[in-house]
């Protein structure tokens, strides 16, 4: 399940950048399709991550940091959505980019180093 989780967020990250550049290039139809697929991958990330989390809990291996990891994971998804929403409105997405990058670095650190 962890492989499905890693594949889901890796594909989501690629789709996020593709959607961002399509938006920037003014390709309305293209970005609509990729952002819909991106949202499907959000669901996959949450489902696979949720299943990994349930496995950890039922195995009796729960640690507080796993919960933090889950919350930061959801925050990354929120970050991607907010960057895209601001960009779509034509507003500056600088603050959202900073938030997204911080949450992404944090989630990778929590996923690979701390846990
Ligand atoms: C884009 C968002 C996310 C990213 C980039 C991400 C990244 C990661 C990474 C790098 C790992 C470690 C993989 C490994 O050990 O091989 C991981 C594990 C995990 N993720 Fe996510 N994740 C995200 C979202 C989520 C969400 C939304 C949830 C929960 C609903 C979640 C739950 C988990 C759990 C429970 C683990 C296992 C922790 C461990 O054993 O290290 N993740 N994730």
Automatic annotation (TrEMBL):
Secretion signal span: none
Pfam family, one: DUF1516
Annotated TM spans: 6-25, 37-58, 64-84, 96-112
Membrane topology: Multi-pass membrane protein
Keywords assigned: Cell membrane, Membrane, Transmembrane, Transmembrane helix
Subcellular location as annotated: Cell membrane
Keyword Ribonucleoprotein appears in the UniProt entry: no
Domain of life: Bacteria
Main location: membrane
Family assignment from sequence similarity: Belongs to the UPF0344 family.
Protein name per Swiss-Prot or TrEMBL: UPF0344 protein L2716_03510
């Amino acid at each position: 399940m962890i492989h499905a989780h890693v594949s889901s967020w890796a594909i989501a990250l690629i789709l996020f950048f593709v959607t961002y550049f399509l938006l920037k290039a003014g390709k309305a139809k293209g970005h609509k399709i990729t952002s819909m697929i991106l949202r499907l991958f959000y669901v996959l990330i949450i489902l696979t991550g949720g299943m990994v989390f349930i496995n950890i809990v039922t195995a009796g291996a729960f640690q507080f940091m796993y919960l933090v990891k889950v919350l930061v994971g959801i925050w990354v998804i929120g970050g991607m959505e907010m960057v895209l929403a601001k960009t779509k409105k034509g507003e500056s997405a600088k603050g959202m980019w900073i938030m997204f990058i911080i949450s992404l670095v944090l989630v990778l650190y929590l996923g690979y180093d701390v846990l």
